[in-house]
Amino acid sequence: MNTGAVRLTLDLLALLGAGAYVFGQIGWRRPTPVSIRLTALLLLLMVLVAMRIAHTTLPFLWMVRIEEAVAAFVPLFALVLAEGMMRRHAPGAVKLALAVGSTAVATGALLRPLEAQAGFATVLGIYLIGALLAVCIVLAARRRTSLSLGENSAISAFFCGVLFALPFGATDFLATMQVIPAGVGSLALLVFLFFASHVTVEGSGGLAAISEFAWAVIASIVTYGALGFVSGWPDEMDGIQLAAIILALLLTFRIVQYVREHRKARARQTLWQAFARAPVNNLEMFLDMILSAEEFEKAQLLQGPALADYDHDRLRRLFADTPVISAGDVRQQSASELQQLDVIFDQHEATHAVLVRKTPLALLLVNMPRVGAGVDAEVQLAVLAKLATQIAPPHA
C-alpha cells in the first residue's frame, strides 16, 4: 500500500470532516464567544492539514518549516478555547508558558536548517503533547460548581477529545524521527472533531462520546476483519494503514451526520423563535408572525366563508379533548363525526388541524412533511393552539 496515498487520503478526509463542522457552525447558528474560539482552532488545524498536503505534493522543502510553525500555536489556540468554555482565565503561569513556548518553537521551526527536521520533530512533538496535556489539566481542575451542566458536559467532551486525539497525532512525530514507518496524524483531527460534534448535537459529556467512539472503533475492526476474510490479510504495515482509512471514513461519515442532525434541529427552532417574537395582544398579528416560520410555509387559516359549508358545532366537538388533530388520527377512525375533517384534510393537503378560535370558528390547516405527525410537531402545534385560544376574543 502506497504510504503517500494513504496519508493524502487521511488528510483529505480530515479536511472534509473539519470543513463540514466549521460550515455548520458558521451557517446555522448565531456566533457565540465559544463557537468563535472553537472555529478559530479548527481553522488553524485545517490550515495545518492543508499545508501537510501541500508539502507532500509540491517540491518546496521550506513548506515543512511553515507547517511546523503553524503546529506550534495549536496549544495556545486550545487554551483560548478552554478559557472560553470555563468562562474564566487560565492560570497566568500556564498562559505565559504557552504564549512564550509557542512563539519560541514557531521561531525555531522557521530558522532551523532543513536537515534538522528529524531532530526538531522531537522538540515539536514533546512541546505539543506537553502543552496540550497542560490544557487538559487546566480543564480537569476547573470549578465545576460554577458552571452549568451543559458547560461541564462540553468541557468533558473537549477534554476526552484532546486525550484520545494525542496518540494519533504523536504518530506523525514518531514517523518523522523514523521510529515507525508512517504516521496517521490526521486521525487526531477527526477524533477531536468526533467528540466536538457529538457534544454539539447530543449535549452529553465525555463518557457518552467515548461510548460512541468505541462503537466506531468496533465497527472499524469488524469492517477490517470482513475485508481481510474476503480478500486476504495484508501485511502488518498495510493492515495498520487500511485500519486507519476505515476508521477515518467512519469518523468522517459520523461527523457529517452529526452536522446534518444539528442543521435539522436548528431548522426546527425557527418556530420557537416565532413564538418568542409574536405579539400576544392581537390574534391576527400573532398568526402572521407564526406563519412566517419555515415550518408553516404551506399553512392555511380557514374561517368565515371558507368554513361556510361545514357544521361548526360538530367540528368544535372534535376539538373538545385536544386542540390539535392529525390527518393520520382521522384516517385511522371511521366515525361519521370525523368525515367533515377528513374532507378538509384532503382539500387542503394538510397533515394537522389546529383550533385557533372557537367562536367564530377558525382552524389552521398545517402541512409539515419535514416533521410529520411526530411528537415534536404535536408539541409545537399544541403550544400554538393554547396561545391562540388565549389571545382570541371569546366572540367576534
Bulk shape: elongated
Number of helices: 15
Low-confidence stretches: 370-374
CA-CA gap between termini: 79 Å
Structural class: mainly alpha
**How would you write the strand order of the largest sheet?**
1-4-3-2
The profile of the biggest β sheet is: 4 strands, antiparallel
H/E element string? HHHHHHHHHHHEHEHHEEH
Which whole number gives the mean pLDDT? Answer: 83
Report the C-alpha radius of gyration, rounded: 28 Å
Characteristic terms for this protein:
mainly alpha, about 400 residues, four-stranded antiparallel beta sheet
Strand-helix topology:
Layout: H1 3-27, H2 33-57, H3 62-71, H4 74-86, H5 92-111, H6 117-140, H7 149-176, H8 186-202, H9 206-231, H10 236-277, H11 283-291, E1 300-303, H12 312-318, E2 324-326, H13 327-331, H14 339-348, E3 352-357, E4 362-366, H15 375-391
Antiparallel strand pairs: 1-4, 2-3, 3-4
Can you walk me through this structure?
This protein has 396 residues and is mostly helical. Helices cover 70% and strands 5% of the residues. It has 15 helices and four strands. It has helices at 3-27, 33-57, 62-71, 74-86, 92-111, 117-140, 149-176, 186-202, 206-231, 236-277, 283-291, 312-318, 327-331, 339-348, 375-391; strands at 300-303, 324-326, 352-357, 362-366. A four-stranded antiparallel β-sheet has the order 1-4-3-2, sandwiched between helices. Helix 6 (117-140) runs antiparallel to helix 7 (149-176) and helix 7 runs antiparallel to helix 8.
